[in-house]
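On to our target:
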Amino acid sequence: MAKAYGIEIASCEAEWREILKAIKNAEFASFLNSRETFVVRVIRVRGSSSRLKAWTLEKRIGEVIFESLKGPKVELRNPQKTFLGVLTDGSFVFGVMAGETASQGLKERTTRRKVFFHAAAMPAKLARCMVNLAQARRGDTVLDPFCGTGTFLVEAGFMGCRVLGFDVKRYMVKGTLRNISLHEVELEGLAVADARSIPLADESVDCIVTDPPYGTSATTLGMGARDIYESFLEHIVDALKRERRICLAAPKSLEVGGIGERSGFKHLESHYIYVHRKLTREIAVFQRV
């Protein structure tokens, strides 16, 4: 979900005096020389610290930088260096940008129609976020036992992971194969199998990223969502290597954190995404202990 990245220079409380103190104590000579142009931008996260005016902070911080280095010029349109401040609830973080993330490919995969499509398919951007939350690394074996249209496998494959997918429905497996071929991702394996009894050796996968069925547009084989999650997590825990992660989506009402804990996982974190009036999606991250 990151849009930009850089080097932190200062952080403090979101108070005018604390911010100016932190900025005045910063060593800007390490990030900008007198011949370079620069700009200061301050952004606010969801209305945080509304008593502070972003444009006033930009102006004052810019003056401090100019005075401390005696020479660099402000350039608003195409600066050589961009200093970025972020106002959050009670905090201010300031740094110099090193670059921006290349999201064009994600946008194309999200908006472009796939060869095989399903109404319950996970958006590419959220799928990449979940693969990141699982801490997948190049060369890791990443498993999706409910592979659906193959979105998680595509994103993990683009990251250099070895991808392995299963689905109980043969037509879904065939559709995943078509989408995988479209994006030229190399498969480690793909098969028709029930996620509650996948034939995997103990500690054979590095990460699991998945979105089990729970909505009206998904195939549940007549089972309730809770039964699916409980039986799946109890079965899959041994296949995951110790200290590695599983990231999955679930309806908030299911309280999947407790299900994972009872299945032998440690619940690390959860994030909530409002989808519509009847569904808030929980993105839960677990670790095998």
In short: The chain has a mean pLDDT of 90. Helices lie at 16-24, 54-69, 104-111, 124-133, 151-158, 170-182, 225-236, 256-262.
